[in-house]
Amino acid sequence: MSKIMVVDDEQDTVDLVKLVLEKKGHEVTEALSGAECLEKLDTYVPDLIILDIMMPEIDGWDVFRKIREKNKDVPIILLTIRAQNIDKMLGIQVLKADDYITKPFIREDLVKRVNRVLEKYGKI
Q1: At residue 4, does pLDDT exceed 80?
Q2: Residue 13: is its pLDDT beyond 90?
Q3: Which helix (H) or strand (E) holds 76?
Q4: Distance between CA atoms of residues 100 and 12, nearest Å
Q5: 54: buried, middle or exposed (CB in 10 Å: 19+, 13-18, 0-12)?
Q6: What DSSP letter does each residue of 9-24 carry, written as one string?
Q7: What are the angstrom distances between the C-alpha of 88 and each of 2, 35, 65, 97?
Q8: Residue 41 maps to which CATH number?
Q9: Distances 94 to 64, 65, 72, 97, 111 between C-alpha atoms, Å
Q10: 48 in a domain, yes or no?
Q11: pLDDT (tens digit, 9 = 90+) per residue, 92-121?
Q12: Is the CB of residue 95 less than 8 Å from the CB of residue 104?
C-alpha cells in the first residue's frame, strides 16, 4: 500500500481521486490548499503527491517548488485543468514533474499513471 497525498482546493476532485485510489489499495491523505500541504509535509512523508496547479493563495507552481525545497525525492504528478502545451512543458520539462494529467481525467488512466510513477520509484 502506497501513501499518496492529494492536494486540490476542490473537495469534489479530492473525493473522487481518493475514492479511485483507495479502491486500488492506496492510503490517501488530502490537503485542500497549498499551505495545508506544506504544513502536513512537516510530519508526513507520502510516497507520491498529486498536485493541482490552480489554487488560491499559493498556486501549485509555488507549492511544487517549496516541496522540492523540503524533499527533493518525493514524486509529484500535476493534476490540473490547465491543458495548454506551455503549461505541460513548464510542469514536465522545467519543474521536472513525474507526470502531468489534465482534468477531467479517466479513472483507469489515473490509476495506471499513478502506479507507473510509484513503480519507477520502487514505492509499489
Answers
A1: yes
A2: yes
A3: strand 76-80
A4: 19
A5: middle
A6: S-HHHHHHHHHHHHHT
A7: 26, 23, 16, 9
A8: 3.40.50.2300
A9: 11, 11, 15, 8, 25
A10: yes
A11: 888 899 999 999 999 999 999 999 999 999
A12: no
**Is residue 122 domain-resident?**
no
CA 14 – CA 32 distance, rounded (Å): 8
Q: What type of residue is 81? A: I
Alpha helix positions (H), the chain: 11-23, 34-40, 60-70, 85-89, 107-120
* DSSP bridge partners of 3: 27
Closest CA to 34 of 12, 5, 13: 5
103 three-state secondary structure: coil
Domains contained in the chain, number = 1
Average pLDDT score, the chain: 94
